[in-house]
């Protein structure tokens, strides 16, 4: 499987090959890593790489997007299938009708970056959600106008909660 990974706005080309049930060969920009992976509970994985263990939470978003959070190192990774990116670009990121920005996981709304009535571009930052001690800027699911902001700064939200609606 081929993916495009983004960490701190830098893109990486990834190739993932499953060798056996728990062992994977992952190539990142041409460098190969051997990784053992076990699903501990739904969407929570334990990774073993070069004698280091990592806990990783995975959230599969809409339209082929995947977000991962590495507990030990506290950084945010986004991955997308290259074909999905081509499709998104071809459609101009178009989502027909209203689109909701949802919380990928439970967290605290730290900052709201827009107000109702603002015009926004696809992927433009709308709010900052703190989850697992990490600040995550959540982007707009489509270009449009901010119709409704359903949260305020300081709110605790559950996974799947609708935060902002864009039309």
Q: How does the major sheet shape up? A: 8 strands, antiparallel, barrel
Q: Helical proportion?
A: under 10%
**Rg to the nearest angstrom?**
17 Å
Question: What is the H/E order?
Answer: EEEEEEEEHEEEEEEEE
- Compute the separation of the termini in Å: 34 Å
Give the SSE layout.
Elements: E1 2-7, E2 10-18, E3 23-28, E4 31-41, E5 44-49, E6 52-60, E7 65-70, E8 75-80, H1 82-90, E9 99-102, E10 107-112, E11 119-120, E12 125-131, E13 134-139, E14 144-149, E15 156-157, E16 162-166
Antiparallel strand pairs: 1-2, 1-8, 2-3, 3-4, 4-5, 5-6, 6-7, 7-8, 9-16, 10-12, 10-15, 11-14, 12-13, 14-16
Which features does this protein show?
single chain, 167 residues, mainly beta, Glycoprotein, Type 4 Pilin, OB fold (Dihydrolipoamide Acetyltransferase, E2P), 2 domains, 8-stranded antiparallel beta barrel, 4-stranded antiparallel sheet, 5% helix, globular
Walk me through what this model shows.
The protein contains 1 helix and 16 strands. It is mainly beta and 167 residues long. The protein has an 8-stranded antiparallel barrel. Strands 9-16-14-11 form a 4-stranded antiparallel beta sheet, with no helix packed on it. A 4-stranded antiparallel beta sheet has the order 13-12-10-15, with no helix packed on it. The longest helix has 9 residues, at 82-90. The model has no long low-confidence stretch (mean pLDDT 82).
């Amino acid at each position: 499987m081929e993916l495009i990974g983004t960490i701190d706005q830098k893109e990486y080309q990834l190739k993932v090959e499953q060798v056996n049930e728990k062992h994977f060969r992952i190539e990142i920009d041409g460098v190969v890593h051997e990784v053992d992976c076990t699903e501990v509970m739904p969407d929570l994985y334990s990774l073993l790489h070069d004698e280091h263990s990592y806990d990783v939470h995975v959230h599969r978003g809409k339209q082929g997007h995947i977000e991962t959070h590495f507990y030990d190192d506290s950084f945010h990774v986004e991955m997308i299938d290259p074909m999905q990116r081509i499709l998104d670009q071809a459609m101009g990121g178009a989502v027909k009708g209203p689109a909701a920005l949802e919380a990928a996981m439970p967290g605290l709304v730290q900052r709201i970056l827009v107000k109702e009535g603002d015009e926004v571009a696809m992927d433009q930052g709308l709010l900052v959600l703190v989850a697992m001690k990490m600040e995550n800027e959540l982007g707009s699911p489509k270009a449009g106008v901010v119709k409704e902001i359903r949260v305020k700064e300081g709110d605790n939200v559950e996974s799947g909660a609708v935060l902002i609606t864009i039309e």
